[in-house]
Amino acid sequence: MLEASLRKTMLSSSGPTLDAALTDLGWAEMLTEVPELAIPLYFRLLGETGSHASILVDVVLNATGNTIGDTVELPLPYAGNAWVVWDRISPESLDPTLGGLPLRREEEGYPIRVAEARVAVGWWLVGSARAMLALARQHALDRTQFGKPIAAFQAVRHRLAETLVAIEGAEATLTLPGANNPDLTALLAKAAAGKAALTAAKHCQQVLGGIGFTEEHALQHHVKRVLVLDGLLGSSRELTRRAGAGLRARGSVPRLAQL
């Protein structure tokens, strides 16, 4: 019931309007009381619907003991040692290079706790990846070539299958319990989600062909979004290297899951 209501709301609104609607639907209470349920649900749906809301800021605020909904500007690390701020005050001033999100580039920032936010962005990336896969799958069923749907061709099936495997693997990483090492678990989960979303963007673009590049098709919106989300709080490439360097320095690998 809640998921259906959230999906409908996100499909009909975005930005500040969606912020207000999510507040009415009890976002703050869910984040405070059951973050392990709220974060995967809300952020996955943001990805699947292609909408955006400033609830990522709330995740950071809640993790650091601040008031949810505050308009304080928190610097968020971005790929390439850069910094961005999610602008809650003037969200209409969008940087066209930042995926349609109300992010503003900053010259410098300061360290903040980002483990929970990385998991949230990871679910956002997974939701976007699933949206791209759904678009490519439907196109493969509808588009005919040589008298049959292109979904019948092995090359197309392989790309769709590889995308699904990447998404499922990322989801499995995002659901790992982080009690033993929450920072490392969140870092690896964000890296896996970013890689899965980039894999989805590449393969789904190949399946859709030229139509996927056009402004009229929904795929390009998701591709732009995941390119930015992958860079937010550290790109998949940067986080993977950071994790590797940390493990080499430590000389051992902590157990992240009971198999």
TrEMBL record:
Q: Which Pfam families match?
A: Acyl-CoA_dh_1
User: Per its UniProt record, what InterPro entries does this chain match?
Assistant: AcylCo_DH-like_C (IPR036250), AcylCo_DH/oxidase_C (IPR009075), Glutaryl-CoA_DH_mitochondrial (IPR052033)
Acyl-CoA dehydrogenase/oxidase C-terminal domain: residues covered: 115-236
Record's keyword terms, sorted: Flavoprotein, Oxidoreductase, Transit peptide
Superkingdom of origin:
Bacteria
Q: Which residues form a coiled coil?
A: none
Name recorded for this polypeptide: Acyl-CoA dehydrogenase family protein
